Amino acid sequence: MSILQSEYNSVKEKSVSGRYVVNEQIADFLESNKEKLIVRTIGESVQEREIKSLQLGNGPIKILMWSQMHGNESTTTKAVLDFVNFLNAESALAQDILEKCTLLIIPILNPDGAAVYTRINANEIDLNRDAQNRTQPESKVLRNVFNEFKPDYCFNLHDQRTIFNVGQTPKPATVSFLAPAHDAERSISKTRGISMQLIVAMNQVLQEMIPGQVGRYDDGFNSNCVGDSFQMLNVPTILFESGHYPEDYGRERTREYIFHALLSSVSSIAKNTIENYHRDDYFEIPENGKLFFDVLIENAQTLDSSLLKEDAIGLLYTEVLEDGKVEFVPRIDKKGNLKGYYGHKTYNCLIEADLNELRQQSFYQLFKA
């Protein structure tokens, strides 16, 4: 299930864009929608920032979503707001979803990490490795909501780095999914199988939009991860990973594809069509590779005479928060024989036009001998 580009543009939340998304923006969104949503303060972060939830729909099927468990992973937060706008727009499909489902959404679980644009919380703990001990207030908030709401489905919403490609292909993993394991053997329980079927449904929609750019995340088992933990409790859980789309470092295009994934999965749940999708097709989605650099410099001996003729340089961007905006600062990640790697931007120094363009880049000074 998908909608037209024009329909998406009509529900895209214009007040939130880019990579830096914080509590204050969500507060404005919630205030403007307070007549259509049930908004609650469900707890506080380490630094006493409010953690909010929003609820809509009145159906018997309960779906729990949470985003920005890692504070610097904001793409799914933007997509969730778009999805809420869609559900509030009173289309026939939206009404059907709201009649069949109740959705409880935590837009920002880690507001302290969001404020300073870090993965971890203010106590320097990765909340997605705190599912069992629940040492952090944010971890306790999520588990309390899980216990009280008793969801039938869980959506664990994240971003992933630009390094990921699909399989062995030069396609970026723009969206990746995982049906988390519930045991060390990674066996397929009934609930994990349902997670796989829903991912197949989303993949079918996304392949029409971004063919070859959907990957499958590593399913190594870790009971301290929230997705694995909830899968262990027999609730179908899906990990969403927002990745890179060419030239989209603000992740506005990826945001749109996550929206379509949310819509297709929730529609499948509401319409009770999950059995139309086969869990075996989940394994046809290629696993993610880690073969991308943000910038790949080929035949780099032109830049540095100490490099061998066949050598290359791979750059990755470090995301740095400066004055409320995320800047992408290049650093050299690897030098040497990088055959088999790809670049989101590639320069071949044996091509004069590429070399001239490269010399105009601000990061050119990184390679000069």
Automatic annotation (TrEMBL):
The active site is at E241. GO terms for molecular function: metallocarboxypeptidase activity; zinc ion binding. Residues 7-269 form the Peptidase M14 domain. GO terms for biological process: proteolysis. CDD domains: M14-like. InterPro entries: Peptidase_M14. Belongs to the peptidase M14 family. This is DUF2817 domain-containing protein.
